[in-house]
Design a protein that fits this description.
2 copies of one chain form a homodimer.
Chain A lengths: L7 H11 L2 H6 L10 H19 L1 H9 L2 E3 L2 E3 L4 H10 L18 H35 L2 H13 L2 E6 L15 E4 L5 E11 L8 E8 L12 E6 L1 E3 L5 E4 L2 E6 L10 E14 L5 H6 L2 H29 L23 H33 L3 H36 L11 H9 L8 H14 L4 H17 L6 H27 L2 H35 L5 H18 L2 H10 L3 H4 L9
Parallel strand pairs in A: 3-6
Antiparallel strand pairs in A: 1-2, 4-5, 5-11, 6-7, 7-11, 8-9, 10-11
Helix pairs in contact in A: 1-10, 3-6, 4-6, 6-7, 6-9, 6-10, 9-10, 9-11, 9-12, 10-11, 10-16, 10-17, 11-12, 11-13, 11-14, 11-16, 13-16, 14-15, 15-16, 16-17, 16-18
EC number (chains A, B): 1.3.99.41
Catalytic activity (chains A, B): 3-(methylsulfanyl)propanoyl-CoA + oxidized [electron-transfer flavoprotein] + H(+) = 3-(methylsulfanyl)acryloyl-CoA + reduced [electron-transfer flavoprotein]
Cofactor (chains A, B): FAD
Chain lengths: ~600, ~600
């Protein structure tokens, strides 16, 4: 059973040495006086303690036990409720909520770092408090003062949780075709009716009330995405002071039997003339939701990083311990009946792949959380706009690339264990099952890829991409004479240029046929992901070299960074070549076969 | 719930048009008079009927219900036992067993084709009769006449089943370190003691007796792989006429909770002074086992093909039915509220990938089964030797490559379903879970890769590889002026040459450091797999073109073959480039990091 250990040293490396979070906060008026490096480290320690000792032990038991549904009532696995109470007592739910709403006013980026630990220790559990964020932010940004006063206080303390009710059985990626209805009541509220599915944490026993944010159509609303409105629908009706009254017409019809995240209740929620309250303008529900799309997607990117980190921790411990065969280059552990499997190059390749994705993914997620801070709290419009561009570009990359590579890492975790990896007790197969959903929800990998190439890159005529490739270009220029990292900087420079050229090529093609965008998008996303991580790995290597040159005593730590960067460039980055060649192949091979002739 | 439909037309294409099985059988004395095309087709129809109507409906229920263990007794899921009775009544167990042992004397290749259908319909079920083959063949080839007379008749009818008991908790890939003991009894039998794990179908309620083939050490046996002997250990002792007597000291200690194949019992089997009988020479147990390694591994390769076929069938039906978004190139189904998702290039890419792996994998597996027939029944020593070389080379490729691509296909199946893919009722996530084991058992992907590059290619100084690349070369030469398939033949010719060059490069390096073999092996296996399938796809395209030129009325079928071949060359085959580049990166990036410095 893998016991989670928060990788604090590596987190601190990214926060303090790579991305200089203290300096970053010092430039944001909201945080410059209240977030020091010491405070950050204190929160890290507290979160690590909670995640290692409270959440990690519930990860496998939660998977085995799962949630139970009985006539609309959902019971979470043993210990989940108690852990949630502790989480509330420790004040985690209110961490990144502004003080005027009862929060601690700390940066969202700190919340992201905490969510990595929560997610790696126990993703299924983490989704209960995790889903509340979307509801809180929706009400915070689009609610009336009264709505804020009624719902926010208890959501912020964690006494209540929240959900996002979007999907219907026939409508997932395509929300334009949802059918749930909202009929106006005489008192200004609405009667919400319809069936929502895949509602994570939609019903459970951990909180006094659940506040659903629901997409539905008003009578006579325009068809498609421009006729969807957003409603607050509480499980229990509440009075103006936030006291819980009678039960609303909201019922959990069933919970799904699914591949993983068994500890989290994935609910069918039936709204039967439930009392709801319009939030935001009529028919603009999707726009309100999209405000938080980036943050929700970064949250899912964290799941990919978590899978890489968790499976790496499990596989590394096993690879040092398990004995099998002798090294091809001669016996390494003569006192044992066989060598530990970490001597075998194929095993090392899997471990280093996990490590490169975990640490590289961490750098990417934390970088995005910085940009998200700036979007929210940046001093000037220009800063905010620039950060929003980078964030918009990198979010679908991080979401799709880190969840897919997280799945790959989880697969390696099983593989390092051999046949034992298939057995539940070792916990490695659970990571494969749990993390698979990350490639599906919040927009599948294919949807992210289209968002990246279609909306973010081509629709802006490459402007967002240029903002980012310029950052890489500057980094390359600043380090081009650094002999220490030449082997990294040179290929990075080439790929950074190729990113633009490849984009132009696809743009030209897509003018002939817009389906060329769909044909290229997934491979383009992978290309972008590998190059983005290459930039971050080169950057980490440069920082590590600097620390060594400055005489740091942590020689092994920094050398490991440099070694892993070299591994990434030699053994992972070459994958871009195939993606470029596949893009080269274009649309035709995908469309030549008539739908009726796929099978006979 | 996906209903399996045997792809009979495609099977017949491979059997009759691509590989000319009738001609193949006509050259084998054992089969030339008793296996016609009509007989083959009759068996296919019978197997399809059984698999579609008896096994497929039990696939999801078996997964949900799983096996139950109670004090050493294992109960299989509802319906499994009854299906097994029907399977026996239909005579399937004895299909490919020689007539002198009570079998039908049909070719092993026919058994392979049947096993594809069984496996795709219900892999977990298929392992109960599947595991018997190893036991039957071990006794057939290495047993005394008395042992054959006692054990074979009921194993062949299927009244009894068999297992292979190799793995121990500490010893999986490395069988040299097993600890189970065999002490001689006064009566010439042996007292077998030890604990074996991961024994598929090790205990169940489907047969009267279970015959275990067990690896154990004699007293004073040499250490390592040269001190292991093989024993027959029946669950119930039997008399000389094969009547079941008292219970032997064999007990199922528990069954594993695992990622998939829940319908199959993966058993811990405890031998406590169980009565066993030496089979084959003392200390030569592993050699006896290795005789069947190729067939067992082809059996596992079938699981990969099954995963590709099964997930393709499920995803294709869904992609034609599910509506979401509009095609980027304009509305395709104006009468519907959205287009079926098969219009989207990314969805088509996943479907075509599954299709290319399923149909290409089928061609590879059936080709191997032909060589296996020749190894067993070929008329001349020369034929048999040549076939054995090709089989030895291609088996680790088929096992590793088809199981990994089967896993990939299964992943695409989930992805095509979006969030619904994660939900158990649709059956797509089950394929991911069930097929994961195929990359682990019968030697992991990494072990297969070492077997391929180390034992089969480098240890033979490339002789086996040359035998196969010559076949490809001949094919290329025969078709180089065929303008119809130029786009396939040219890249195939280049890659076929590169295969040899790449091998020489690795061989040179490995002389400096044998670990270079381990560093290159997995990528070399992928390279080999993609090129092998490229050859088969080009071959299929040539055959399809010939049929069209000959005026076949099945224009859509043959065009689909050609289209899929083009897809494979344009969209799958470019993956070789990255594998070559990664091999280029060599050993150093994998070994530079000290085992103690992987994490801090």
């Amino acid at each position: 059973m893998p016991q989670y250990k928060a990788p604090l040293r590596d987190m601190q490396f990214v926060l303090h040495e790579l991305l200089n979070f203290e300096e970053h906060y010092s430039k944001l008026p909201a945080f410059k006086d209240n977030v020091s490096r010491e405070l950050l480290d204190q929160y890290l320690e507290a979160a690590a303690d909670f995640c290692e000792n409270e959440l990690s032990p519930l990860n496998q038991t939660g998977d085995r036990e799962g949630c139970k549904w009985d006539d609309g009532v959902v019971t979470t696995p043993a210990g989940f409720k108690e852990a949630y109470q502790k989480y509330i007592e420790l004040g985690f739910p209110s961490l990144a909520v502004p003080e005027q709403h009862g929060g601690q006013g700390l940066p969202g980026s700190l919340g992201t770092v905490v969510s990595e630990m929560v997610g790696t220790a126990n993703w299924a559990w983490g989704m209960y408090p995790g889903l509340s964020h979307g509801a809180i932010r929706t009400i915070e940004h689009h609610g009336t003062d009264q709505q804020k006063a009624i719902y926010l206080p208890k959501l912020v303390t964690g006494e209540w949780t929240g959900t996002m009710c979007l999907t219907e059985s026939h409508a997932g990626s395509d929300l334009g075709i949802i059918r749930s209805k909202a009929e106006p009541n005489a008192d200004g509220s609405y009667a919400i009716s319809g069936e929502k599915i895949f509602i994570s944490a939609g019903e459970h026993d951990m909180a006094e009330n659940i506040i659903h944010i629901v997409l539905a159509r008003l009578p006579g609303a325009p068809k498609g995405t421009k006729g969807i409105s957003l409603f607050i629908v509480p499980k229990f009706n509440v009075d103006a002071d936030g006291n819980v009254l009678d039960r609303n017409g909201v019922r959990c019809g069933s919970i799904e039997h699914k591949m993983g995240i068994h500890g989290n209740a994935t609910c069918v929620i039936n709204f039967d003339n439930a009392k709801g309250y319009l939030i935001g303008p009529e028919n603009r529900g999707l726009n309100c939701m999209f405000t938080f799309m980036n943050t929700a997607r970064i949250g899912t990117a964290v799941q990919g990083l978590s899978a890489s980190e968790g499976s790496f921790q499990g596989a590394l411990a096993y690879a040092k311990d398990r004995l099998a065969m002798r090294s091809l280059s001669g016996i390494k552990a003569p006192e044992k009946e066989a060598d530990p499997i970490i001597v075998h190059p194929a095993v090392r390749n899997m471990l280093l792949t996990q490590k490169a994705f975990a640490e590289g993914g961490r750098a990417l997620v934390y970088l995005l959380s910085q940009y998200a801070d700036i979007v929210e709290q940046g001093e000037t419009e220009e800063e905010r706009k620039f950060a929003d561009n980078i964030l918009s570009l990198l979010t679908p990359i991080a979401k799709a690339f880190l969840t897919e590579t997280g799945s790959e890492s989880a697969k390696h975790g099983v593989q390092v264990f051999g046949g034992h990896g298939f057995i539940s007790e070792h916990g490695m197969e659970q990571i494969v099952r749990d993390t698979r959903i990350a490639c599906l929800y919040e927009g599948t990998t294919e949807i992210q890829a289209l968002d990246l190439l279609g909306r973010k890159v081509l629709q802006t005529q490459g402007a967002m991409l240029k903002d980012f490739t310029k950052i890489i270009h500057k980094f390359v220029e600043a380090n081009k004479d650094n002999a220490d990292v030449k082997a990294l900087i040179e290929p990075l420079a080439v790929l950074n240029k190729e990113w633009g050229d490849l984009t132009v090529k696809i743009a030209m093609r897509s003018m002939q046929n817009p389906d060329e965008v769909g044909a290229a998008a997934v491979d383009y996303m992978y290309f972008s992901g590998y190059v983005t991580l290459a930039y971050l790995w080169a950057h980490m290597a440069v920082v590590a070299k600097q620390q060594l040159a400055a005489g740091s005593s942590e020689v092994d730590f920094y050398n490991a960074k440099i070694t892993t960067a070299n591994f990434y460039f030699k053994k992972i980055l070459p994958r871009v070549r195939s993606h470029v060649d596949v893009i080269e192949g274009g649309l035709e091979p995908l469309m030549a076969l008539d739908a009726e002739h796929f099978a006979f």
